Amino acid sequence: MKGMNLNHFIEQIPLFAGLIDTQIQLLLAIVEKRKYQRGKVIFTEGETATGLYVLYTGRVKIYKLSSEGKEQILHIFGPGEPFGEVAVFTGVQFPAYAEALEGSEALFFPRKRFVELITRDPSMAMNMLAMLSKRLRYFTQLVENLSLKEVPQRLAAYLLVLDNSKDKENTVELDIAKGQLASLLGTIPETLSRILNKMSIQGYIEVEGRQIRLIDRKSLESISMGEKLLM
Amino acid sequence: MKGMNLNHFIEQIPLFAGLIDTQIQLLLAIVEKRKYQRGKVIFTEGETATGLYVLYTGRVKIYKLSSEGKEQILHIFGPGEPFGEVAVFTGVQFPAYAEALEGSEALFFPRKRFVELITRDPSMAMNMLAMLSKRLRYFTQLVENLSLKEVPQRLAAYLLVLDNSKDKENTVELDIAKGQLASLLGTIPETLSRILNKMSIQGYIEVEGRQIRLIDRKSLESISMGEKLLM
To answer: Which residues of chain A are in CATH 1.10.10.10 domains?
Structure first.
């Protein structure tokens, strides 16, 4: 009965959601269920990442310690969420501490046996790559939808500020990389490109390499004040 | 010279950004550069996905055709962006059409040779899984940051509406799955959990399974009106 539950649970972990049944069975054969009492440290910063953890029950906090020993919490994870997986895939050390916030159980997939599975059955890796790609696609879309109201506003404000600080009016030169600008505006480069593209099509700006000419300052000002939405 | 550029370009494709130099060389050995004139169809819906495309120059639109032949654009991609990759990893048919919007070049990685590379060197798959996991982590955080202002507002409004439609006051029962509720509110289940958690810690609600008791209606109302932020 518990086995059935575990099977079902593993199928629903996003990373494994694209696997076929025989591949889930192979994972079930290598998984270890580990129990932690409240306050128990699961792994420490600098420890070699020997396996992938997925929280089964309870809650886990991921944190770093400052040089003065002060704790800085990075994440708190709940059931179904993987942790430390980037380090496991890369095969490096864990970059932070993990500690059980309450009585918790985690599924542990040993790295070595995981690599063996992929070696024997590369389609397993392909299915996992497919799932992660699919989720990334979904997230990209979600970030774009969430960004579309506020990012144009912040971008317009940024362009106007940049323009006012220059001698040559109405033409600004982007002085930072696009990735950095995207981060500054709270979005991703793909969305930033699409917003610049929309602003060009609407005739508010003209983009030529790193130079941006402000054609319709009035509209940019309205967008920057949140009075006008970019369509 | 052109080879150098291609090398550098491939390294910067997010999926390949975690690969070591010898692995990039193996990719360079299997990649084909394909040119498309404006209007050229790159692949059609239902066609078997025989390889992974990454746009090198130009722009590509991804679209579906309705039964009446009407075009519905799903995405427009620019240089550096992969397309059709989910289908390629799964090894199924492309779910949509791809067409060059202008003169474009794409890098094509044949699926068969790609699988051979992974089979010979599983660490390549691990590195790609690491990169995608890392990006997903980043995106999860970004979605959370972008959601934190508006999602609590929408959630509070949803809970109050649900409560008003019930006989038993101050207790609502979530009648849809958490994933669906997250979608409805424009976020992901992980962020929804964190927001519910915050609302509980602040004493606004009490969650017990699917039942949510509204403890502090006044605060929920202020949040739903956007007058109060969830801290």
So the answer is: 148-224
Indicate yes or no: CB of A136 within 8 angstroms of CB of B134.
Answer: no
ipTM over 0.85: no
Residues 6 or more apart in contact with residue B180 via CB below 8 angstroms: none
DSSP conformation letters of A110-153: EHHHHHHHHHH-HHHHHHHHHHHHHHHHHHHHHHHHHHTTHHHH
Q: How many beta-carbon pairs under 8 angstroms link A with B?
A: 111
Is there a contact between B186 and A147 if contact means CB atoms under 8 Å apart? no
A89 vs A105, A177, B15, B113, B161, CA distance in Å? 21, 29, 13, 22, 45
Nearest Cα of chain B lies from the Cα of A133 at a distance, in angstroms, of: 6
Task: Judge whether residue A1 has pLDDT over 50.
Answer: no
Instruction: Say which CATH class A148-224 falls into.
Output: mainly alpha
Most A CBs within 10 Å, among B89, B123, B127, B190, to test the A interface: B89
Structure confidence by residue, pLDDT tens digits, A159-183: 887 777 666 678 888 877 787 788 7
**Type and span of the H or E element at A156:** helix A150-164
- Identify all chain B residues contacting A82, using CB atoms and an 8 Å cutoff: 133
Chain A residues touching residue B93 (CB < 8 angstroms): none
Which residues on adjacent β-strands are paired with residue A211?
A173, A208
Q: Which residue of B has its CA nearest to A77?
A: B190
Q: Which residues of A touch B137 (CB under 8 A)?
A: 86
Which CATH topology does B2-137 take? Jelly Rolls (2.60.120)
Name the percent of chain B lying above pLDDT 70: 96
Question: Would you say domain A2-145 falls under CATH 2.60.120.10?
Answer: yes
pLDDT at B103: 96
Residues of A in contact with B119 (CB under 8 A): 119, 122
**Is the pLDDT higher at B87 or at A228?**
B87
